[in-house]
Amino acid sequence: MTTARADDDEFTTSVHVYEPHRRGLPRLRPYLRELWHRRQFIAELSRTNMRAAHTNTVFGQIWLVINPLLLACVYFVLVIILAGGNRGADFFAHLVAGLFAFYYFSGAVTTGAGSVVGGGKLLMNISFPKLMLPLSALRTAFFRFLPTLAVYFAIRVAMGLPFYWEMVLSVYFLVMISAFAAGMGMLIGAVQVYFRDMTSFLPYFLRIWLYLSPVLWFPQDAPERFESIMWLNPLFPILGGWGDTIVAGEIPSLSLWLSAAAWALGTLTVGALFFMSREREFVVRL
Amino acid sequence: MSVSEIQPVPGPVVSTRPSAIKVQNVSLTYRTTFERVPTFKSAITRLGRRERAVREVQAVREVSFVVPHGTTLGIIGANGAGKSTLMRMIAGILPPTEGRIVVRGKVSTLLALGVGFNAVLSGRENVVLGALAMGMSRKEITEKYQEIAEFAELGDFIDMPMRTYSSGMYSRLAFAVSVNMNPDILLIDEALSAGDASFKQKAADKMKSLMEHASTMCLVSHAMGSVKDLCSHTIWLHKGKLMMHDETPKVIDQYSKFLKVGENAFTLEDF
Q: What CA–CA distance (Å, rounded) separates B172 from B196?
């Protein structure tokens, strides 16, 4: 009894009642409190996963830097060939910043999507708030993203591009990318339990999304007739604002700030609620 | 179910306390997609007919029983009888399809797979992760970790990836984790099948000392010797149904008759 605490509920209280699963949300307050109480698990799971990821390779953790560099080279060559070679340092900085942010997003979504189905043994043996799994995936993706941010600044320095105070504002858009990625990860993670084919669809889906987002092109280069449709892409305001701040050092228009927040927070809310309403059924479906 | 309502006769101290585990008319049905030979052709025809290859498996059917506080319940039955599923439901991992389960106390599980959900990580990392998932704080874990490592007697292996473990080491670590969590209710699922003789002895001693400290326990085992030794009452499951709930010797007697093998068959295995 020594470990019984006053703040325990749902997962560790002294009295548990288990009844047939009903579609619907668990009581939110105790759920979120349990989630907060176990935040160390979220961190530890992602930390050990990252440690385990590169243990068998020669370069080990250096891959965290090699990966983004190779990625930037591949896309730079690709875009230069397609555009006929008239692109300068500005474009390269835009490309690299956008690519790294997009890969942060797609990494968080991909690992988040696989986290529930891949958590098999853990889910089968321990009862805990499952929302920890996609959140841990987000943390993993974020810590993979941080070295790429350093690479980006190193590239900027190497190319002699200036730094602006407005770049600080990019933190806002980084938070929005994270919230949006978390929401998508939860949504797809829950869907994947019922529809395993999602694993095969997801890479193509994300690749097309990359081409539709202002990463390989400047937002202002987009043909005018697509302007209205572009705003339907959540990554357009989010990555657009990110590029404006961290690459160009400009303060984005108010509509970018607002629609980025709307998409990100909306997706996070929908994703989290959908995940929580289904999570008690996950173990039966695994 | 009339058999299930037989309240085991507990001592006077125990009877004043509420039951630790109360299982009322619980059923669980798995829905699995199942095809003997999954082919492209059958997938296409199924899509055309809007069917899904779903098969329902009734793992547990209308089972009811009560475990009074501080007693140990044995759970026996053939493979696939629903023993592990029942344990998972008591632990709150699987929600029942029907019925109701009330559990009073902190539950610690030692299920067949136990810790070691990630074979790439070391034993230590798995222990820490499992304990954090159960909601323990880091401070509690560092206190407990030493006890766990000592109890498991793995030596240097504790810091090696779990894929290098033998099945015996695996079950030793799993057992060490679950008994050292200070549980009010301990669920053990064929835990010691892979341990060696000396560890089995140690584990049995530990379980007895936990029983003396009024922990409630459920023990799933195929080793009738240990069930007799540790459990006052036993339930027998067969194909998801509760066949009998009574004092251990009577249940084992009936179970052995049912299997048409003498009790000698069980002396071959201990835990």
A: 9
